[in-house]
Design goal:
InterPro entries: Ammonium/urea_transptr, Ammonium_transpt, Ammonium_transpt_CS, NH4_transpt_AmtB-like_dom. Belongs to the ammonia transporter channel (TC 1.A.11.2) family. It is a multi-pass membrane protein. By secondary structure, this protein is mostly helical. Helix content is 64%, strand content 0%. It has 15 helices and no strands. The protein is globular, with a radius of gyration of 22 Å. The termini are far apart.
């Protein structure tokens, strides 16, 4: 049967929109790289940038071979917990998925490993990155995707199997950010803090990143990419809502971009003033992390909440981040990028926030294309009952448990095999000179370290003799 020209044009526009969104999400890898590079000390800049490259290239292979299949594979043996078809993109494209959809989901997958890399920065053997990045992007993360985003997943809002609702995690506060944050939590916890991060009395010693310019650049690149991350998760832009003359996914996409911006901006501003009260000075780096915390939190409910609710989301996300940063210092937990607190803590808050503030009309628009007569649970504080908030809590607990029982043993095994942490001498000298042949910059005189790999090896030889 010949496809009409109207259908062809509609499909083409939707594909262009999805591909453009995938490109925006991929730009976030550059944002992560710049943010991470600026947030570590200069002697580790080359290492952290290389790990971001590794996250992308290793994640590409693992997601192609296994990840997409575990996430979206259906077929006759489909089940609510794991996909069983489409390995190495066999039988793609089909009536459900095409190459553009794979590319969009791949861009999400490689972002997860980047989150975890930040938690274990400045003290991890490079080989360990290869192992956990492949496992996380190819197995651990895709299973969670299947639960929530696959049409037959046990947490999916499309199947309505859990509490008559399913969890609403539209763009991944839980699926992406909480997964990466919990994985980073275990990696950082098993490794322990960096050398010199806490003194003999347990008090924290500041180890600020070496380049605020890169941090700000990375933050704005991530902000730019988030317009593909959140609005792009609609997948299609030309979907009209019935019983209206001027509303469709295009209006939902615009609203989602607005809620994303408002949540991030509110969180950045709140963090700026909150840290001013606590630390006594204005800190650009804190404001940048607060901004990202707001984006992480709104990612779950960005499409189903009013703009005013996004401001509430961002305000609370900022205090979640500030509070967790204070707590981690008291517990002597060291995460150089604050990834556990930012992505894990704010991601968890984002799931709860959605269960409280999701608007009935928007939920039906997003998940039922505005179909009349549909009844779905929505935000508890808006009168929607306990169904949705119950699903959000279940998703939160399920993700924490799943990532803990998978990534925890991986990091523990790497540690026991002495494949996880570098030696004290290598850490003091810096990973760039000890593992990568030289520094990212020609010189940085503020740190008294060997300038070339040969100098480092000569020092190591004298120490061993």
């Amino acid at each position: 049967m010949e496809v009409s020209w109207e259908r062809s044009v509609t499909d083409s526009i939707n594909t262009i929109y999805l591909l453009f969104s995938a490109y925006l999400v991929f730009v976030m890898q550059l944002g992560f790289a710049m943010l991470c590079a600026g947030s570590v000390r200069a002697k580790n800049a080359m290492n952290i940038m290389l790990t971001n490259v590794v996250d992308a290239v290793v994640g590409s292979i693992s997601y192609y071979l296994f990840g997409f299949a575990f996430a979206f594979g259906d077929g006759t043996n489909s089940n609510p917990f794991i996909g069983t078809t489409f390995f190495a993109l066999k039988d793609i494209p089909n009536t459900s998925y095409d190459y553009s959809y794979f590319l969009y989901q791949w861009a999400f997958a490689i972002a997860v490993a980047g989150i975890t890399s930040g938690s274990i920065a400045e003290r991890t053997q490079f080989s360990a990155y290869l192992v956990f990045s492949f496992f996380l992007s190819g197995f651990v993360y895709p299973i969670v995707v299947h639960w929530v985003w696959s049409s037959n997943g046990w947490l999916s809002p499309s199947s309505d199997t859990l509490f008559g609702s399913g969890a609403i995690d539209f763009a991944g506060s839980g699926v992406v950010h909480l997964v990466g944050g919990i994985a980073g939590l275990w990696g950082s916890f098993i490794q322990g803090p960096r050398v010199g991060r806490f003194d003999a009395f347990g008090k924290p010693v500041p180890m600020r990143g070496h380049n605020a310019t890169l941090v700000v650049l990375g933050t704005f690149l991530l902000w730019f990419g988030w317009f593909g991350f959140n609005p792009g998760s609609f997948g299609k832009i030309l979907v009209a809502y019935p019983n209206t003359t001027d509303q469709g996914n295009w209006t939902g996409i615009g609203r989602t971009a607005v809620t994303t911006t408002l949540a991030g901006s509110t969180a950045g501003l709140t963090t700026l003033f909150g840290r001013r009260l606590l630390a006594g000075h204005w800190d650009a780096l804190d404001a940048c992390n607060g901004l990202l915390g707001g984006f992480v939190a709104i990612t779950s409910g960005c499409s189903v909440v009013e703009p005013w609710a996004a401001i509430v989301c961002g305000f609370c996300a900022a205090w979640v981040l500030i509070g967790l940063n204070v707590l981690t210092l008291k517990l002597q937990f060291d995460d150089p990028l604050e990834a556990t607190q930012l992505h894990g803590g704010c991601g968890a808050w984002g799931l709860i926030f959605t269960g409280l503030f999701a608007k009935k009309e928007f939920v039906i628009q997003v998940y039922n294309s505005g179909e009349a007569g549909v009844v779905r649970p929505y935000g508890l504080l808006l009168g929607g009952g306990w169904g949705l908030i119950g699903c959000q809590v279940v998703e939160l607990l399920a993700i924490v448990a799943w990532v803990s029982i998978t990534m925890g043993p991986v990091f523990f095994a790497l540690d026991k095999l002495k494949m996880l942490r570098i030696s004290i001498d290598e850490e003091v000298a810096g990973l760039d000179i000890s593992s990568h042949g030289g520094y990212a910059y020609a010189t940085h005189p503020e740190e008294n370290h060997p300038r070339f790999y040969a100098d480092y090896m000569a020092i190591e030889g004298r120490n061993q003799s």
